[in-house]
Design a protein that fits this description.
about 70 residues, mainly alpha, 4 helices
Length: about 70
């Protein structure tokens, strides 16, 4: 695989329906969720993925509460 300077392969093109569908499937979200994430953090795939994962994660305090209050 050859990479070219200035080319960013992991950007999500929201104007390309096929690309949106592929990214939604890859990230296991709906296209609407994908669109909202891109609107929130931009089109860099890594940022979108972290944003989506962050919305489903818990804080360390939450995890400690779960362990301590059993």
């Amino acid at each position: 695989m050859t990479t070219h300077a200035g080319v960013e392969p992991d950007r999500i093109d929201m104007n390309d329906p096929a690309a949106c569908a592929q990214w939604a499937k890859k990230l296991d979200v709906t296209e609407t969720q994908l669109r909202e994430a891109v609107a929130a953090v931009g089109d860099v795939a890594a940022d979108v993925e972290m944003h989506l994962k962050g919305s489903h994660s818990t804080t360390n305090a939450d995890r400690m509460d779960e362990l301590g209050d059993s």
